Amino acid sequence: MALVGIVLVSHSGTLAEGVRDLLRQVATEEVRVEPAGGLPGGGLGTDAELIAAAIGRAEAGAGVLVLADLGSAVLTTRTVIEDLDPGPVLVDAPFVEGAVAAAVLASTGADLETVAEAAREARDVPKF
Fold first, then answer.
1. Residues near 83 by Cβ (< 8 Å), separated by ≥ 6?
2. Does residue 1 surpass a pLDDT of 90?
3. Which member of 22, 35, 62, 115 has the greatest number of CB atoms within 10 A?
4. Active-site residue among 11, 20, 88, 98?
């Protein structure tokens, strides 16, 4: 069974990779989680080619959910998605909490819309 893939777009490669490492602890190994953070040379920023490549690696046949940290990560991701075949979904959700919720639901075999809704709902979960 194909599972929804997840792409993490951040200005920081270290941040995107760290969230990916966290998701590996809460999701099954079959959930493809791909970081797309920073610039190719390692600096801060976002890169359309890195994002597009991560979306391609995350696709397993059930769709791809994309979470972006802020600002230009959202704008760059929107531009990338516009140039792709319909499918990847950029969701307005908290970066870490939304990613965790999405990964857990993706592990169950939930469809893309259900995984996206779980990420969005993470915004309303109190921390204490």
1. 52
2. no
3. 115
4. 11
What does the block give as tokens for 87? 């499918």
Quick check: is 63 catalytic? no
In the structure encoding, which two tokens stand for residue 86, read together?
A: 């319909």
Measured distance CA(104)–CA(106) in Å, rounded? 6
Amino acid at 19: V
Cα separation, 110 vs 126, whole angstroms: 24
- Measured CA to CA in angstroms, residue 83 lies from 51, 78, 87, 92, 118 at distances of 12, 9, 11, 20, 26
Q: What is the Cβ-side half-sphere exposure of residue 110, based on CA atoms within 13 angstroms?
A: 20
Tell me the pLDDT tens digit for each residue of 86-101: 789 999 999 999 999 9
**Which class for 87: exposed (0-12), middle (13-18), buried (19 or more C-beta within 10 A)?**
exposed
| Confidence grade of residue 127 (pLDDT, cut at 50, 70, 90) | confident
